[in-house]
Design brief:
Blueprint: E1 4-12, H1 33-44, E2 47-53, H2 57-65, H3 85-98, E3 105-108, H4 118-131, E4 135-141, E5 178-188, H5 189-195, E6 203-207, H6 219-231
Parallel strand pairs: 1-2, 1-3, 4-6
Antiparallel strand pairs: 3-5, 4-5
Helix pairs in contact: 1-4
């Protein structure tokens, strides 16, 4: 695949994660978590630059050692747990514009999706071009149908827990649902700024297998990912 001189991969990696402290540089099979995403992005050869956005010096140093660029320090107001990913993306695009570099397409690749590989990224870009999309967002099949889920009242009654349409139905006979897996977000820059995000009328779903859709947020997620790597 030929490198697109107008495309950039952005990997967001702040240092203050709470659910799993320092998760972006936790070891996964003797390699920092963020390294899996950096290497997949570089191997895909889809991007003119693979950039890590962080406020954390240790993360920046590790990212550089695996081949990513860290050309700026993320502003403090975008480095707490209230910061939105879209604001991080737009800040990065604006920074490059101010330096005279106008990237027309961007991929947001979260480091918490280490099993997403170079082929997934390449195939997502091909799909983006095929659909002439404004954006593409990766999804996978839901592990459990949401038709079997509901909230519970204080008395724990299940009287209205299931809808009539899903009552006494086998899983195979129910509609297939999909969920965001957090692995790949691609967008045209103008579309991204127009909709202030990746979701709009020309956004399409790129379906990935469940086995590569793990999203690490906890110690259990990390241990489960290690198990997957040993068994797939």
């Amino acid at each position: 695949m030929v490198i697109d001189s107008q495309s950039i991969a952005l990997i967001p990696a702040r240092g203050g994660s709470k659910g799993l402290p320092r998760k972006n540089i936790r070891s996964l099979r003797d390699k920092p978590l963020i390294a899996w995403t950096i290497e997949a992005a570089l191997r895909s050869t889809c991007f003119a630059k693979v950039v890590v956005s962080t406020e954390d010096r240790e993360i920046a140093s590790i990212a550089k050692s695996y081949g990513a660029e860290v050309p700026f320090q993320r502003p403090p107001e975008l480095a707490d747990d209230r910061a939105k990913s879209i604001d991080v993306v737009i800040q990065a695009l604006n920074w490059f514009e101010e330096k005279g570099e106008d990237f027309r397409r961007i991929a947001l690749l979260q480091p918490t999706s280490p099993l997403r590989n170079q082929s997934d990224i390449q195939n997502a870009w091909d799909f983006f071009n095929l659909k002439k999309a404004g954006a593409v967002v990766s999804v996978c099949e839901c592990e459990h149908t949401p038709l079997w889920m509901n909230s519970l009242p204080d008395d724990l009654s299940m009287r209205d827990f299931l809808s009539k349409g899903s009552l006494n139905q086998n899983r195979q006979s129910l509609k297939q649902y999909y969920r965001l897996n957090g692995a790949i977000y691609l967008a045209d820059k103008d579309y991204l700024k127009e909709w202030h995000g990746f979701f709009g009328p020309r956004t399409f779903a790129f379906i990935m297998p469940q086995a590569r859709s793990v999203d690490i947020d906890s110690e259990l997620d990390l241990r489960f990912t290690e198990f997957l790597l040993q068994n797939i």
